[in-house]
Amino acid sequence: MRPNASSTTPSLPSPKKLRWGIAGTGGISQQITADLTLVDNADIVAVSSRQASSAEKFARTFSIPTCFDDYQSMLAADIDAVYIGTPQVTHFEYAREALTRGRHVLCEKPIGLNAGEVRELASIASKFDVFLMEAMWMKFNPLYLRLKKVIESGAIGEIRSIRSSFGAPFPEDDSSRWRPGGSALLDQGIYPVTLSHMFLGQPSSITAAGITRENGIDVSENFTLNYRDGCFAQGSSSMINFLDQSASLSGTRGWITIDTGFWFASQFQVHRFSIEKGETTETYETKREGNGYVPMLREVTAAILNGEREHPSHTMDETARTFDTLDEIRRQIR
User: Residue 114, exposed/middle/buried by CB under 10 A (0-12, 13-18, 19+)?
Assistant: First the structure.
């Protein structure tokens, strides 16, 4: 179904509201769309799915005026930006096509399968003068904004080590995570790696071990990111067994623990210890908006409407450097 789909791509006006198209109708797209309805200057005008029935149902659920069973036709419609929530093996191609059509792109993580793809997309976005960002919502979480301020205040001194993990056994069904291109590291391990990059930067060396199946899918890994000054970050991810899903950052004056589900958590604790007082703990709590994506969606929508081509909180250069680390971990466990 291609209602009024023209053969040429319409030019983009400067709207008061940003007109979003949603690519994909799975669970993540449903959560994102629900949160987009909470952003004042965002207007969801289209959705696409490979199945017409899925697109129609999604459109009815979220009162979206136009639906397509063809992604290319949606890109040709009157939209300004697209959110890509399709399986991760399609992200690079979907993002590249949207960018070359002059559409701004917010792509679910991982935005590509390797650093080369990330840098190629960044180059295309620059060429066509459009916004591009990977949807790393953790960086926009109010908890992390608060966490940065606490750390900058010197509450735990200099950060010397980080620990984080994300593991849960997923049913081995016919979903894309179990097909070539699937990856526990890119789907789950990307959060521990991103956390380490946020507070310690890019490592000088990496040691990693894990399990990679014959079809190339890594299903479990653990890794240590080493830094020249002796700092380190330990992380792990798995889609075949549970791992502790909390995180901690340890410094010269104390340490911080982030609650389970550290990438979307709403609470962390600052711990200090002295011989005189023993251990003291201070708790910080933030409030989640919607499903947790609202802060990111609000920032991205505003950035695009303001004519920006990246968001300073998660630039494509930072994304590419994170993928350099991910690539090296995957190289070692293969």
Answer: middle
